[in-house]
Amino acid sequence: MVAQNTFIGLVAWLLISSMAPPPAFAAGASAKVQHPESATPSHTQGPVLTALGPRVHMFVRPTYREKFTQLFRDVLGCDTKELNFGFSYPVLLVSFPDHSAFSVEFTDLAPEDVKGETIDDAHAFRGAWIEFRARDVSAVQEKLRAAGVRSFSHPGSKHVYFSAPGGQIFRVIAIRHALVRAFVSGANAETIAQTARISQKLSDATFKTIKSDAAPKKCFVEKTFE
Q1: Long-range CB pairs of 147-150, under 8 A, 24+ apart, other chains included
Q2: What is the pTM (predicted TM-score) of this model?
Q3: How far is it, in rounded angstroms, from Cα 1 to Cα 188?
């Protein structure tokens, strides 16, 4: 029963991890992480937050509602639906195959977009910027440019940034190689890890056994996805 529960937990962990969020937004050089002082010594208790959720909510002026919807529904072919929460305009929900999504509230309280056919970094919307992922970045960028979506470069990144109707900034990056490791230890570690590898249709190379005289047998399964 213990081995079965461990295996179920391992498979669930692998499935959840395959939908892990992309790498940090900044590209290139590493930066020092500064931890602000807190009234409570959280370092002794561990982090209070455990992950960044795959959901974003943004605000766009009603003037750009139709163009914004057309961009993601018609140009980029995303799954869109309108949700009624009793606001002046329905909330737009844009969903993706990995179950992530973002919602848009159309309101006059949203910041105004920059006028003009072009945009640069100095005048781009200063708020949360979004990162989308695609298998063929060039094809997506070509569609965006053909649709007249404005683009610009940012000095802190090598990627191209786009300004959606209404001003929301986003970029599109390639789906990168990612690695997930699940460790199992104990007498049945090898059997559990091998079974998990087979159920997840992983190659033989993903299964490894770590043997040590000073510690119990430990195995781990690596899952590589793009």
Answers
A1: 147/71, 147/75, 148/117, 149/71, 149/75, 150/117, 150/118, 150/119
A2: 0.62
A3: 11
Report if residue 189 sits inside a domain.
no
Tens-place pLDDT, residues 22-58:
444 444 444 555 555 555 555 567 889 988 899 999 9
The tokens for 54 are 């795959």
62 with 106: CB under 8 angstroms? yes
Residue 155 lies in a domain: yes
Please give the residue range of the domain that contains residue 65: 54-174
Q: Return the higher-pLDDT residue of 219 and 98.
A: 98
Sign of CA dihedral 147, 149, 150, 156: negative
Domain count for the chain: 1
The CATH number assigned to the domain holding 101 equals 3.10.180.10
Is 130 within the bounds of a domain? yes
For the beta carbon of residue 139, count every other beta carbon within 10 angstroms: 11
- Per-residue pLDDT of 79-127, as tens digits, reads 999 999 999 999 999 999 999 999 999 999 999 999 999 999 999 999 9
